[in-house]
Design brief:
DNA/RNA_pol_sf; globular; alpha+beta; Retrotransposon-Effector_Assoc; RT_dom; Reverse transcriptase domain-containing protein
Length: 531
């Protein structure tokens, strides 16, 4: 244990990483050398003592031993429950009776859902050997994150609104101890630890000792814009999108980041939160304060209801993006942020966070591989949602320019606001008049957006829906480059068929939709504009 008292020289981040590594080694030695007694053995010992105590009820030594064993058994049961709860990741079950069996049921279900007993390899052959599965998973994600088939040369980008000097000063404001402490204290202690092995619960429990080195390391990052590579190593946990998945394309890679890194990105999110509402157009609702999925869902139902009414030719296009988070062009994102007026120092901090990580893939809770990446945002990184909607804002800019130049004509021009599209994260719904010129313009927009941002249209899953009076539907769908679909439109996980209010027995929601449309009309966007 003497090495724990050695204080290394170097940067604040290096010193903290070194101390955590020393602590991990010490904890591993302690686990290996401590006496190992199972809960079942301890409970059996307690029962034996209680039987003996019944035969000799006045024996003070047995009574004291019973009291000690009761405390030890209670502590071991609590530890088992905490461990099971952490592995089950049940954040919705709070402060109730002990229910370890429930947690283990959840663990078994989760393990079954996310297990990979068989996998299709690159040749299309189904493999079941664990080593082959591990090698295929590593190969797949190396290829996914290291592709370079997109441009690194960008035109001058036109954006709708610029970050002001005052807003940049808010972004670059010095980090205070109170901010860091608030993030640590509000963190869920049952979240899985990152590659360094230390969970948010560890930082929370020992904050009195850790706060000084953590604050020094955090402030060092915000002053220098540099992040130690050990801080940003990431485990990719593969979560199945469907039952019995055998293709890695059907798994969602969730990034398990170190908690120290999450402290930094949570701080950056808090600084960005104050400017995002004014920076991001109203047609985007995801991750923005005071904007809700319910608002978008209601508006989508109202628009599809109007879409279904007789009169005129109308088109509704549901666009699907292929591997959206994983394929973002980081150079484009940084170029776009500069065009939006973000201070260069802030953009460099963002670049360091998203470009410096290394990855290992978790298969059966064991990490495999070690590789870097040159594209994509990590699902599980607190900063990723804000960065993704900034990328999607450029799609709005392209749509705005097409509407302004009349290459695309939106629907509902008389009573409702002019609506060209809705965006919720990577869910896109476009509503336009299906002139051939408009279909080709939308196809060009998606091609240009994909070429710059890296977000490619998944034409197999995208669909265009035409009103009943629309003629030459096949030709118009061909001009757009996607297949025709049949109503209802699936949007935000449910059918948008214009019957929401009737199904729910709440006709008054129709009036609410009108109120929402009126409120959205006043936000001053080209996308939302009253005639």
């Amino acid at each position: 244990m003497g090495e724990m008292h050695h204080f290394p020289e170097g940067t604040a981040q290096f010193r903290m990483v070194h101390k955590l590594k020393q602590l991990k080694r010490a904890l591993r030695r302690w686990v290996k050398t401590r006496p190992r007694t199972s809960l079942a053995d301890k409970e059996a010992e307690l029962r034996d003592i209680q039987v003996a105590l019944q035969a000799d009820i006045m024996n003070g030594e047995l009574a004291a031993k019973e009291k000690t064993l009761i405390e030890e058994v209670s502590t071991m049961r609590l530890q088992e429950e905490i461990s099971a709860a952490q592995r089950a990741k049940c954040t919705w079950l709070k402060d109730g009776d002990r229910y370890t069996k429930f947690f283990y049921d959840v663990i078994r279900t989760r393990q079954h859902q996310n297990s990979i007993p068989r996998l299709l390899n690159a040749e299309g052959r189904l493999v079941g050997d664990p080593v082959e599965i591990q090698e295929e998973a590593v190969r797949f994600y190396i290829e996914l994150y290291q592709q370079t088939d997109y441009t690194s040369m960008f035109p001058a980008l036109v954006t709708k609104r610029l970050v002001t000097r005052h807003e940049n000063s808010l972004l670059l404001a010095p980090v205070r101890m109170e901010e860091v402490e608030d993030i640590v204290m509000k963190a869920n202690p049952n979240k899985a630890p990152g590659p360094d092995g230390f969970s948010s619960g560890f930082f929370k429990r020992h904050w009195g000792v850790l706060k000084a080195p953590v604050l020094a390391a955090v402030q060092e990052f915000f002053m220098t814009g540099k992040l130690l590579k050990e801080m940003n190593h990431t485990f990719l946990t593969l979560v199945s999108k469907k039952e019995g998945a055998t293709s890695l394309a059907d798994f969602r890679p969730i990034a398990c980041c170190n908690f120290f890194y999450k402290i930094i990105t949570h701080l950056m999110c808090r600084h960005m939160e104050v400017i995002m509402q004014g920076l991001v157009s109203r047609n985007q609702a995801a991750f923005i304060k005071d904007r809700s999925i319910a608002e978008h869902s209601l508006l989508a139902h109202e628009m599809v209801r109007e879409f279904s009414k007789p009169g005129g030719m109308k088109a509704c296009v549901k666009l699907d993006l292929r591997k959206a988070y994983d394929t973002v062009n980081r150079d484009f994102l940084c170029h776009l942020m500069l065009a939006m007026g973000f201070d260069g120092r802030w953009v460099e901090r963002v670049r360091e966070c998203i470009c410096s990580p290394t990855f290992s893939v978790l298969i059966q809770d064991t990490p495999h591989g070690y590789f870097r990446s040159n594209r994509g945002l990590r699902q599980g990184d607190p900063l990723s949602p804000y960065l993704f909607i900034l990328v999607m804002e450029y799609f709005t800019c392209l749509m705005d320019m097409a509407v302004h130049s009349k290459r695309i004509v939106p629907l509902f021009r008389l009573v409702s606001p002019v609506v060209s599209h809705l965006i919720y994260a990577d869910d896109l719904l476009v509503l336009i008049q299906p002139a051939m010129r408009g279909m080709r313009a939308l196809s060009d927009i998606m091609e240009e957006f994909g070429r710059l941002s890296g977000l490619q249209l998944n034409r197999e899953k995208s669909r265009v829906y035409f009103s009943s009076r629309c003629i030459q539907q096949e030709e118009r769908a061909f001009a757009l480059g996607v297949d025709r679909g049949e109503l209802p439109v699936k949007y935000l996980g449910g059918p948008a068929d214009g019957q929401l209010c009737q199904r729910a027995g709440l006709p008054q929601l129709g009036g609410l939709c009108s109120e929402e449309s009126g409120r959205l009309a006043s936000c001053g966007s080209i996308v939302w504009r009253s005639d």
